[in-house]
Amino acid sequence: MKSIEEFIHLVQEEISQYNFPKQPEGLYDPLDYFLKIGGKRLRPVLTLLGADLFGGDIQKALKPAVGIELFHNFTLVHDDIMDDAPLRRGQSTVHEKWNLNTAILSGDVLFVDAFEKVSDVDEQYLKDVIHVFVKTAREVCEGQQKDMDFESETVVSEKDYIKMIQFKTSVLLGCALQIGAIISGADQSDAEHLYQFGLSLGTSFQIKDDYLDAFGDPEKFGKQVGGDIISNKKTILLIKALELASVSQKAKLLELLGESNLVLKVESVKRLYNETGATDYALNQMETYYQESISHLDQINATSKSKQLLYGFADWLKNRDI
């Protein structure tokens, strides 16, 4: 049985051999740059794991796996524009290193190339693969729009928050796994359970990300701890704290949203998250979605041995501190 590390190596090798055209340089140089600054490559690895689970040909899964990664990078290039982010993975974002118009157009090309790679499957599976990919691409855009809408909305419900993070993040994990399953001939029920495994696991992953943003170790987390608090981002922690808070706690929390002393703001808001029970609630929800993902994996008609890599991947994602 292959290891996760071996699958990552396969993906990295495939991406390293991926060559964009040389001209026009202003369009393709930014894409070479962006792909070379790295990333965990988790999504394409999930495509390979989905194919491997059902005895599929890993070589045939590599091109659609790379397509998933190109699509993910397309979303990152455009997200960085919308967030006006100066850095990605510790390096200058495309719109900072070049300019806004170049970043928009280069991102568009990544989407086109992603579609081409995802479509490189046996004809008998093409219709189903394209259906899953197009549905997911639309949902990711809807999730991003909802995230931007939240910035101007005074009240956001937990239900809307969960739908937003599922569309923005989780559906692509489910899509990556499901495409691997489809091109390996998995039956519809097993492919759907694998999709739901990815969806629930991705939801748990994002809730954990919200938690780490507030309470993670800055030496391990890799980005500013408390960034969501500073920007008043409506995470599950803030949403639930406002819901569970007493009258005085809610007044204090709302007052802190406008606090200019950022160190004081972060520490005070974190304290209120703990006092209101929002922190415990978020961790419980993270566990609930994790267990839901395992339940779907349990129901897939495959041997326990063949599912070990996916169980291990889920466990790693759950217990990560970065």
Write a structural description.
The chain is built from 16 helices and 2 strands. The chain is an all-alpha fold. The protein has 2 domains: 186 residues, Farnesyl Diphosphate Synthase; 123 residues, Farnesyl Diphosphate Synthase (Orthogonal Bundle), CATH 1.10.600.10. The protein has a two-stranded antiparallel sheet. Strand 1 and strand 2 form a beta hairpin. Helix 1 crosses helix 4, helix 4 packs antiparallel against helix 8 and helix 7 packs antiparallel against helix 8. The protein is globular. The chain starts with a helix and ends with a helix. The relative contact order is 0.10.
In short:
The protein has helices spanning 4-16, 25-36, 42-53, 58-83, 94-97, 100-118, 123-150, 158-182, 188-215, 218-221, 227-230, 236-244, 247-256, 262-276, 278-298, 308-319; strands at 87-88, 91-92. With 322 residues, it is mostly helical.
Largest sheet: 2 strands, antiparallel
What is the H level of CATH, i.e. the homologous superfamily of the largest domain? Farnesyl Diphosphate Synthase
In the CATH hierarchy, the third-tier topology of the largest domain is known as Farnesyl Diphosphate Synthase
* Unreliable residue runs: none
Rg, please? 20 Å
Tell me, what's the shape? globular
User: Could you give the order of the helices and strands?
Assistant: HHHHEEHHHHHHHHHHHH
Task: Label the structural class.
Answer: mainly alpha
Q: Which bin fits the share of residues in helices?
A: over 70%
**Please, how many helices?**
16
Mean pLDDT: 94
